[in-house]
Fold this protein.
Amino acid sequence: MTAVEQPETPLGHGNMRRKEDARFIRGRGTYVDDVTLPGMLHGAVLRSPYAHARIVSIDTSAAQAHPKVRAVITGETLAGLNLAWMPTLSHDVQAVLATDKVRFQGQEVAFVVAEDRYSARDALELIDVDYEALPPVIDARQALAEDAPVIRDDLEGRTDNHIFDWESGDAAATDDVFASAEVVAAQDMLYPRVHPAPLETCGAVADMDAVTGKLTVWTTTQAPHAHRTIYALVAGLPEHKIRIISPDIGGGFGNKVGIYPGYVCAVVGSIVTGKPVKWVEDRSENLMSTSFARDYHMHGEIAATKDGRILGLRVNVLADHGAFNGTAQPTKFPAGFFGVFTGSYDLEAAHCSVTGVYTNKAPGGVAYACSFRITEAVYLVERLVDVLAFDLGMDPAELRMKNLLRPEQFPYRSKTGWEYDSGDYPTALRAALDLADYPALRAEQALKRERGEQMGIGVAFFTEAVGAGPRKHMDILGLGMADGAELRVHPTGKAVLRLSCQTQGQGHETTFAQIVGEELGISPDDIDVVHGDTDQTPFGLGTYGSRSTPVSGAAAAVVARKVRERARIVASAMLEVSADDLEWEKGRWFVRGDVEAGRTIQEIALAAHSDLELPEGVEGHLDATCVYNPPNLTYPFGAYVCVVDVDADTGQVTVRRFVAVDDCGVRINPMIVEGQVHGGLADGVGMALMQVMAFDEDGNHLGGSFMDYLLPTSMECPSWELGETVTPSPHHPIGAKGIGESATVGSPAAVVNAVVDALRPFGVRHADMPLTPAAVWSAAQGTPLRTDLAIT
Amino acid sequence: MIMEVTVTVNGHAYTRTIEPRLLLTHFLRDELGLTGTHWGCDTSNCGTCVVWLDDVPVKSCTVLAVMADGRQVRTVEGLEGADGLDPVQQGFVACHGLQCGFCTPGMLMTARWLIDHNPAPSEGDIREAISGQLCRCTGYENIVRSVRWAAEHEAGVREHTVEEAGTEVQA
């Protein structure tokens, strides 16, 4: 066991080993369940076995009598505190603990606080709830039927399960394009309900100090500051007396954006008992009750000329939002960023309409690395392009190349109003096809088809729109989507960067130090990144929708440049020259024309804290703050090629190769970018082939454990083949775009396109995810499965 | 009912009085404060709880702590030795084999066992060895590379040691 040579740390951008790894490889991370406080009690949630039922009575007396139980909390208890309902992120309300009805299987009904976690679970068994079962609404396509049971009768005047209608684009112009088009292809497709399933489930340790009135909550959150404000709104607690600490997070992927009833119960438990209370959900609770993703029932049409020029898109979506409208997206976007569904193509007109409905399923909808529904949008358009290629008998890669936006069209304003910042799409697609050796793959496929073997090649191209705001267009619960950064430079030139965003594995402690290092010429090793603690960091909306680099990354660069300008003034005083006569090279200011006459940032930092006389009106120190309000989203893009082998007799799909060319603008740490892409590709394979949360007719969740909700292992994943192009964002301070969700957004369509391509000899034009062996086999037989229901 | 058990973890004997239903993972985490071993699924699918029980990797969420009475347990906290990090730990850093870090302790314990029993594992060997464990961040690619890095590094050290020994003999 000899020491390994440590590669030199780059003075800014470049491959660099992660600073956070040192604790994780030793088992010394601090996740929420690792937090133990003196006198800490443990909470557990009693959940509904029914999808839809009226609560007749709840008897907690036996649980209260359990020797180790300290408190039993019900909806009635919370109603007394005006906490039985809480606001959702979509201006609806959600029951913290049910008072009138339960509306999905797994809904929170009661909360037990006990001396240890096993006793808390034991006591749940002692609570006697009398339910009167009601007919549930399980199939979203039946939610608006006239005789459908009304789920949200808690809302005054509510007589149906309709939530919203939303549309985007020009309906009349689109209809005109379709009316005169030579070719129209249409396809129904389902993006099934899935779950992000980070390996760490959600949880909280709440500690209310009765003397100081300070509430500290260690919790699994991707957005600590937003959570603090929401706790203030929910509980009526003064915001300055709330501290949210998001320690190490074991994966988020959107699962840890919202506030869950368990967190609120832990807070109430601590208030009631006067002790810290830990609540950590188990895996079934995580899968059954926390933020699901997708559940979009889509009908898409694509209009084109006979020779394959795409003219228009027309889309209708039925969106299953579950029992409470709890989707996490900017207020003006009830369907998230689905409006970017025109994708990467130059069209004449496009229109979509989305209708949201309540069903007796868990709330959520925007989660799982979806960039606010762009996953659904990309899947839709990329499947439609393949369906069109099928109908026209054209090669799908060639059809895409013919219709991709051209570099000279950027900045490009889409037919639904999105301004794409930069792109060179044909180069990316060519790079992917070259890397895959596409002609050779098609030749191999032809040979195999002659032998009766099913091999498929799937191509997908995607455009993402990530990094919300700008704040004037984008807010969550009225909180504008901008993020702060604070940079302190100590006298010896070491620095501390404080951020509002929150890593869940993305490596912020490394990459954000590199951003500052690049701007100031301070080694990233000498820059600590502080995040995940509202008492220690400036306000901001947090990490989701691939917004850390586009927003907080920009904030880090801007704040570092402010420090650099302060350093310039100090250097001018040190060198006794005008600040205008100074030039910057990485790490030092020097006198123009006299490179030797300069001062390093470290020397300047020391001087800034010294007795050096500074110009009139100039403060000492170098510290700076900023709030970054992005002028636009960034638009990363990419081209993917997937190769599968399908056993048509068993329906088994093997992903043999996956080529991914991603363009996320300037890469701060290429090693970390590639790691993010790898993870997203595995997600895509999982969603395309394995993952689904289906329900039976009674509303029983059929994916409530990892025995049933299948995630890809090392055996289902191929060795990923990556390529890159670099098209900087023109409006981002360092030209970077978000990357965290690109591969999750782009890859499912590539996998499904490949499987459908493999099934071409069977005349298959489309089949819904997940393409399990049963689904593939059925599709090949001409009897495709409805994958989201077990209703016969 | 409570029982007294003595479990040797990373070379230290711990005696505790516990309920017989206590899971080994909770024993390690809550009784001993060794929180490097995680818990993630209840159903033995995720493998974040993998530790060695008498030199065999097990999922400690499906082993009762009383079953470890009188036996040896090795956890991620026992990987680093007096002479530094274990090569598998170094490999995961060198090859970016972790992101959120939650699966990492279990992956490291399996990787260590694999290389002990198969010093030159193929990509297929590595994939099979970790196939009972989930990672949601890395798509497994860099975990495979990390384990291979560790195996190759150890092979290099062995070769180097043999060469040195040979030189000494000649001298």
User: Anything to note?
Assistant: The mean pLDDT of chain B is 94. The first helix of chain B runs from residue 24 to 31. Chain B touches chain A through 67 residues (CB under 8 Å).
